[in-house]
Specification:
With about 100 residues, this protein is mainly α. Helix content is about 85%, strand content about 0%. It has four helices and no strands. α1 packs antiparallel against α2 and α3 runs antiparallel to α4. The radius of gyration is 14 Å and the shape is flat.
Length: about 100
């Protein structure tokens, strides 16, 4: 879960790095990338890699889309919200059926 949340952090952080030309946003984004990958590797010790990776990416994709709506003024259409809800169901389902 934390690895996925850090993925959200670095994905949103990319917007603030301005192409990695801003020092502190770039440093924080780089740290979030490294820590997120490290935590994913720890999760893969106990979860099947397909599940661990899919949940990590799903949390990152959903969280980034939500924060894009909230922080960056991206569109929040009913269809987009509906598909984010479906993604949430898929993430939970994958985690619950991991074995």
């Amino acid at each position: 879960m934390v690895a996925g949340l850090l993925e959200v952090g670095w994905a949103i952080g990319l917007k603030y790095t301005d192409g990695f030309t801003r020092f502190w946003p770039s440093v924080l984004t780089g740290l979030a990338i490294a820590l997120s990958m490290f935590l994913l590797s720890l999760a893969a010790r106990t979860l099947p890699i397909g599940t661990a990776y899919a949940v990590w990416v799903g949390i990152g994709a959903a969280g980034t889309a939500i924060l894009g709506i909230v922080l960056l003024g991206e569109p929040a259409s009913a269809a987009r919200i509906g598909f984010l809800a479906l993604l949430g169901v898929a993430i939970v389902g994958l985690k619950l059926t991991a074995g």
